[in-house]
Specification:
Blueprint (H helix, E strand, L loop, with lengths): L1 H8 L5 H20 L4 H9 L4 E2 L4 H32 L3 H27 L7 H12 L6 H13 L17 H12 L8 E2 L1 H4 L1 H4 L2 H8 L1 H20 L2 H27 L32 H6 L15 H11 L11 H7 L9
Antiparallel strand pairs: 1-2
Helix pairs in contact: 4-13, 5-6, 5-7, 5-12, 5-13, 6-11, 12-13
This protein binds zinc ion (ZN) (2 copies).
Amino acid sequence: MTTDASTARTPAPANATLDAARAKAGTAAAAASARAGSAARAARTAASKPLAYVPGTVTQARIEQVLLALFIAIPFFAVVAAVPVAWGWGLGWHDVVIAFVMYAISGHGITVGFHRYFTHGSFKAPRPVRVALAVAGSLAIEGPVIRWVSDHRRHHAFSDKEGDPHSPWRYGTDAKSLTKGLWHAHIGWLFDIEQTNQERFAPDLLADRDIMRVSNSFRSLTAVSLLLPPLVGFLWSGTWEGALTAFFWGSLVRVSLLHHTTWSINSICHAMGERPFKSRDRAGNVWWLAVISMGESWHNLHHAEPTAARHGVMRGQLDSTARIIWVMEKLHLATEVRWPTRERLDAKLVTAKPATE
Ligand SMILES: [Zn+2]
Ligand SMILES: [Zn+2]
């Protein structure tokens, strides 16, 4: 990993050169896709691009690190403060409903949208649904959609090997290295000033005007995500206190819980859990994260069969994300859904025992 970082840093060009290179690459990619038979060439060009680089100046990257630290620290302390607040001050059922609904919308925006749809193409969707999923996922405040997808595609390309942006095994396998690695995989990697090369990992999304627009509206969508709960709280209760408690639970606590849940998939689910299916990495199934992660903690199956729309494939494995995709399919909002087949799952099992119901 360390050599990867140093080699990737070498080709980072200056601002103007970078913009020119980007524009050139964008034009080249568009022209290539217009010509029949050029797909293979375009893929080769994408693969030759560096894994990551520092966009803009190092100072800008440092400022972004500080902002990121605030976004992580403030909601985290909000959660710590939540317990005495709930006991001494009261937590209304309005707040619970608002926080639950916002968690479900932004969380499934990540799992149905950013992850299973945009990253892995587990199903196809009409354009309005495609845009709606990009917006819903952005409300989780986990970064712009194209950046999220690029990081995650890179994670699968190099999972638990050199080049993986967030492997807990980065520093070694002994207890001390793993502790350091878990921190890196959970939060630390977000502070890497290098960013995954989007032209290499998400040229399809960069070529999509609507998705580019959503990705570029990340800051506005962050504001919407934080301000919607207090607005609903105010309108529902008719008091400023209602707005304040809705902001606390529906914005701060909800965002923090969702962040740590998503990050747990990168850290905990790559360090522990059962591994009934054959995968090239250390991804495990962690049952106690299944409900809160909306089915994403069945991570061993996911790495064994990344394009499958369902991750919880064994008896009793809850996967609300798969359930939502199933409902979307019934409503014709999702088509060509890649449901895992019994034959493929059985073939992927480490032991010969059938896995499916
Ligand atoms: Zn994935
Ligand atoms: Zn993973």
